[in-house]
Each structure stands twice: as C-alpha cells, then as structure tokens.
Amino acid sequence: MFRPRLRAPAALGGSTSGSSIISRQSAQSVFAPLSQSVLASPPSCRSLHSMPISRHDPLVGVPNLLSAEGYDLAWTQHMTLMLNRLNQMVTGTDYEDRELKNILIDTARVPSLASIFNHASMAHNTDFFFKQLLPAKSASKTTTPAEIPATLRTAIEDNFGSVETLRREFAAIAQGMFGPGFVWLVKAKDPNPSGRGGDSLRLLTTYLAGSPYPGAHWRRQAVDMNTVGVKPAAAAAPGAEDAHIADAARTWIESQANAARNNSSLPPQSRGMGSPVDKRPPGGVEVLPLLCLNTWEHVWLRDYGLGADGNGGKAAFVEAWWNVIDWEAVCDLASLDRPKLKT
C-alpha cells in the first residue's frame, strides 16, 4: 500500500560541505517545490534511495565531455529529481529498500507501476552511463580515446570488424534516434560471427527509460514509436475495409508475440496456442550490458547546443563521448572468453 509521507534522500541532507552543497543547492534552485517538501520531513526519517557515489568531480565535470554546469544538470539535478520522485512513489512499499535494477525488472511488466519503472530505470541508466566515463584524474588531456584492453579489442574486431566500425555504428544509431534514449553495447549468449568461438557483442537501442536487461524486456522500448504510424493500404490484407487505418504499431507488437509463441527452441506442445513454456517477454534476448550512450537532450544540450548550423549538437557530443570511455571498466564487466587462434 502506498503512503503519501516522504523521506529525505541523502543527497538533500547531511553534510554541508563539498559536493553535497552543490547537489542540494542545484536541486533546490531547479526543483524548489519538490526539494522543499522533502526537506520538510522530520530529520529522524531515514533516507530511501539516495544519490550514488560519483567518480566525477562536480567542480570539474567530465573533462573533454561535460562542463561543470553541464555535469550538474545531467547528473546532480537530474538524478536528484528521479530519486526524489521515486521515493515519493515507493515509500511504505517493498521497493523502498531494493536496488534500482531489481525495482525496474520487477515493475517492467506491470502497467500500473509504469511510473515507478520509468524513474527507477532512468536513474539506473544514468548511473550506468556516468560510471563508464573516465574521471578527471584519469582523463587524457588530449582528445584521443583511451587504450582498449586486448581481449576487448579482439572481441570488438570479431563482432564488428574493427573498433572504428563500432564507433561509427554508435554514432549512426544515436544520430538516427528521433526521440531520447540509450544505445547499449551488450554481450549476448549466441556465438559471435567470426566462427572462432568467443563472445557475441551487439548494439541495442532503448528509447526513453527502456531497459536492456532480459527480465525487463517488457519495457525495453526498442522501437521509436515516432516512426511507427499508419500502415499503407497496399500493405494490408486485400479487400479489408479498414486497410487504410491498419495500425503498424499493433502489428509489430503482435508479430513479436507470435514469434515468442512459435519459438522453434520450444517443444512442439508449447508452441502456437496456449501458454508457452518460455516466459521471456516477446523478443526477449539474454544480454549483459557493457557500455551505455545517453542521448537524452538534458545531457548534451547545455554544452553542445542544437547543432542546427552543422556544428555541435548531438553528433559532436557522441564524438566527444567516444574519447572519454573508460574501456577498462567496460572490459571488467564483460568477462570475455578468449576466442580460438586463427589457423
């Protein structure tokens, strides 16, 4: 049962020094009604979900990517808003003490909990994005990318042909996204294209607060609904009276459901009509996220502008992002298998 009583996140209370001052002042100036109501809570109330520890200096930002002001908006202010609102919704429920990843997976397939999913997933994705960026003390003073560990480089070359191809695909996908979201480099269970064994890497897109985790594929939101509209009459069944208003979005969803029901990996008795044994969401894929590119406007608009004149904008942000990726952190998540040697 949900209760209206609020409890203050740690980012808005406690110490009055260093980054805590910046976090609190930023939140109060931009989200004054929300932060004031939270701060009005009794001091004895314990915090629920609080700001994760950041590896970045709020006075510096992310060198070669985000200024201190851009970082304040993309991290401090945004995360404060997401966590404050999440805390409002989960106070008095089982979710108040659970990790963000567990919350988003558990709420992904429940329509009535969509708002909890959105805020938990958005906070988790934002944290994931910033954890894969080089901090100020490690960031290069040049604009060249950090060195990629040998095992990860080999896996990238086996799956994408080259590191440069992966960079270009990231940039092309991000630029092609009409709405905001995330582009993910993930490790999948299926074999890689090289035929030499090793791990399979691929790129996935999630729009808005969609999640790449297998258990949350009900809300992966891999399709930009801005590009899915009315199906042309010629593509509908001949003679159908409502062919001109056939809904392509519904058709896509139904085709995904049919694919899940008729999964060839299932036993024959489990296919077709009836409840399948495979409980994954339609189109669900077993993947492990390794790297995340955040394409939400609040992340890059402050420092890069719209890019209407061909300079700056999202494309410039993505180019700069590639040069500050912490590839060691990516490799640590991957736990890559060494492929067989070429013979």
Number of strands: 3
Q: What top-tier CATH class of the largest domain fits best?
A: Alpha Beta
Strand order of the largest sheet: 2-1-3
Outline type? globular
Average pLDDT taken over every residue = 73
CATH superfamily of the largest domain: Iron/manganese superoxide dismutase, C-terminal domain
Alpha-beta content class: mainly alpha
Main sheet specs: 3 strands, antiparallel
Please indicate the percent range of residues in DSSP E strands (runs of 2 or more). 5-15%
Q: How much is the radius of gyration in Å?
A: 22 Å
Helix content: 25-40%
Number of helices: 11
What is the subunit arrangement here?
single chain
How far apart, in Å, are the first and last alpha carbons? 63 Å
Query: Could you state the order of secondary-structure elements as H and E?
Result: HHHHHHHEEHEHHH
Low-confidence runs: 1-46, 225-236, 241-246, 259-279
CATH topology of the largest domain: minor pseudopilin epsh fold
Region (Disordered): 1-20, 259-280
Biased composition (Low complexity): 10-20
Pfam families: Sod_Fe_C
Biased composition (Polar residues): 259-268
